[in-house]
């Protein structure tokens, strides 16, 4: 099975709650005091961490299906905060907008109760470097 | 209804705000501030690594660092604590930080209106002239009387 979670993501408490072939993995993060910003709301940085992790997971999953496992280097991320994250579990799933040989563009949404009502979204660009040094 | 003091001292504020919740978990440290900027540091820690190949800090904690430094830049600029919420934050990762290096972020609040605050800043691992990340964001100033209880 592809490892989707970095040391940081595991430490944050992110879990892979769904991983079916052909579909980007669904990640979940139960609320904890360590994720709080303003009292009673998620910290923007913790939400960004969940979104980025879901973006990488979507990319790793798609690359694994193509038999690729390059090193992933973040280029940039833009996070839009749509509503306050309430103190309960959040979920996120990424979508590959464009997968090239060296660059991937991803779009990610995070929600709590209803996937149709996201609390935050992000777009990311990721650079892919083949491990054999060919790139 | 809650009253907010009409002064903002980042050092005193940090003793409370950076020792609890998400900033406390990350171990963010207050470094310095000016009229409209604030500088915070994120110490290196093995469980905040984002790349299996290199012992460098993940991008996620650097976003949290920039977000928190931005909030504090808004409060030093406003000379008062007001609840804010991040609306939009963009981070460009210019290069990985050095192995086992802490990362420092200096964020400036360059424009405030009644409802919005605009920030920009960068993060470095020792030399401010050679940043690891560049950030720009917009925060909403929340009305404490209209905040929905959790």
From TrEMBL, chain A:
A molecular function GO annotation: thiolester hydrolase activity
Family annotation (CDD domains): PaaI_thioesterase
Gene3D superfamilies associated with the record: Hotdog Thioesterase
Residues in Thioesterase domain copies: 40-117
InterPro entries: HotDog_dom_sf, Thioestr_dom
Superkingdom classification of source: Bacteria
Pfam families: 4HBT
Record's protein name: PaaI family thioesterase
Taxon lineage: Bacteria, Pseudomonadati, Pseudomonadota, Alphaproteobacteria, Sphingomonadales
UniProtKB/TrEMBL annotation, chain B:
Source organism: Tsuneonella litorea
Domain of life: Bacteria
Repeat as UniProt keyword: no
Protein name: PaaI family thioesterase
Thioesterase domain span: 60-129
Keywords: Hydrolase
InterPro entries in alphabetical order: HotDog_dom_sf, PAAI_dom, Thioestr_dom
Entry-linked CDD domains: PaaI_thioesterase
UniProt cross-references to SUPFAM superfamilies, sorted A to Z: Thioesterase/thiol ester dehydrase-isomerase (SSF54637)
Keyword Metal-binding appears in the UniProt entry: no
């Amino acid at each position: 099975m592809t490892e989707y979670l970095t040391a940081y993501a595991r430490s944050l408490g992110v879990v892979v709650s769904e991983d079916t072939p052909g579909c980007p993995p669904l990640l979940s993060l139960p609320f904890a005091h360590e994720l709080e910003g303003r009292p009673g709301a998620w910290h923007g940085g913790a939400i960004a961490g969940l979104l980025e992790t879901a973006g990488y997971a979507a990319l790793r999953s798609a690359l694994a299906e193509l038999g690729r496992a390059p090193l992933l280097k973040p280029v940039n991320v833009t996070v839009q905060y749509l509503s306050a994250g309430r103190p309960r579990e959040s979920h996120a799933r990424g979508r590959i907008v464009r997968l090239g040989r060296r660059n991937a563009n991803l779009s990610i949404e995070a929600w709590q109760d209803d996937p149709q009502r996201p609390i935050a979204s992000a777009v990311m660009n990721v650079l892919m470097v083949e491990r054999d040094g060919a790139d | 209804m809650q009253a907010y003091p009409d002064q903002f001292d980042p050092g005193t504020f940090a003793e409370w705000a950076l020792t609890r919740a998400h900033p406390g978990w990350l171990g963010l440290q207050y470094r310095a501030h000016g009229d409209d900027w604030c500088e915070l540091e994120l110490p290196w820690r093995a469980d905040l690594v984002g790349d299996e190949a290199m012992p460098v800090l993940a991008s996620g904690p650097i976003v949290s660092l920039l977000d928190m430094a931005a909030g504090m830049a808004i409060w030093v600029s406003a000379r008062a604590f007001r609840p804010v919420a991040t609306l939009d934050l963009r981070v460009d990762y210019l290069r990985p930080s050095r192995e086992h290096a802490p990362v420092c972020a200096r964020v400036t609040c360059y424009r405030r209106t009644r409802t919005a605050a605009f920030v920009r800043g960068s993060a470095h691992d020792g030399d401010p002239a050679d940043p690891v990340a560049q950030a720009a964001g917009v925060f909403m100033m929340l009305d404490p009387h209209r905040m929905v209880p959790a």
